[in-house]
Design a protein that fits this description.
The structure is a single chain. This protein is α/β, with parallel strands linked by helices. The chain folds into two domains: 123 residues, NAD(P)-binding Rossmann-like Domain (Rossmann fold, 3-Layer(aba) Sandwich), CATH 3.40.50.720; 52 residues, no CATH class. It contains eight helices and six strands; from the N terminus they run E-H-E-H-E-H-E-H-E-H-E-H-H-H. It has a six-stranded parallel beta sheet, sandwiched between helices. Helix 2 links the parallel strand 2 and strand 3. Helix 1 packs parallel to helix 2 and helix 4 runs parallel beside helix 5. The radius of gyration is 18 Å and the shape is globular.
Length: 184
């Protein structure tokens, strides 16, 4: 049965466009609420979700109380994510959080314990499986081209030129205090 989801985000929420596009076409999600304390993502949410967008607002707790979503998608900077995840768990939502979902592991541990205690899923997004190189590796394995596998490890080497960009260094994702050592 299709459910209600809530997106907890802000300007610059990682991969927000992709998440909204995915929610728009998901047959498992009937309606979506979007909470953004700054309000800057609400127009993009309306455009991406169309009639599936049930409500928007700046007060996430009020939206969760009113619409009772079963799933919360948290895509926020790491320093802001733990309180949002905690609130979603308090409202009985399963949570999928974009990484990094905390600055320190000690910030995440109580969330795991809370989710376990409430029998809720607390999931982290690991989207590398849809990268072209990962899909090619899946194809090779599926076709048996590598023989019988007993284990596999894949390392991606990414372009690091963004690290020299002043814009990146000033963004939350390039600051250890806000992202736990960097993002992406």
């Amino acid at each position: 049965m299709p459910t209600t989801a809530i997106v907890l985000t802000h300007a610059g929420g990682p991969h927000l466009d992709a998440y909204l596009a995915g929610l728009a076409v998901s047959t498992e999600v009937a309606e979506v609420c979007v909470a953004d304390a700054g309000g800057s993502t609400l127009a993009a949410a309306q455009k991406a979700l169309g009639p599936k967008l049930k409500a928007t607002g700046k007060d996430a707790a009020a939206l969760m109380r009113e619409h009772k979503p079963k799933l919360a998608l948290v895509t926020m900077e790491a320093v802001l994510a733990p309180p949002a995840i905690d609130a979603a768990l308090e409202h009985g939502c399963h949570v999928m959080a974009e990484k990094p979902a905390c600055v320190r592991a000690s910030d995440f541990e109580p969330l795991v314990l809370k989710a376990e205690g409430k029998h809720l899923h607390l999931m982290l997004a690991f989207a590398n499986r849809i990268r072209p190189e990962a899909r090619e590796a899946q194809r090779l394995v599926r076709e048996g081209r590598l023989g019988k596998l007993y284990g596999m490890e894949i390392h991606l080497v990414a372009d690091q030129t963004r690290l020299k960009s002043e814009g990146y260094r000033k963004s939350w994702s390039g600051q250890k205090a806000r992202a736990g050592g960097g993002h992406r």
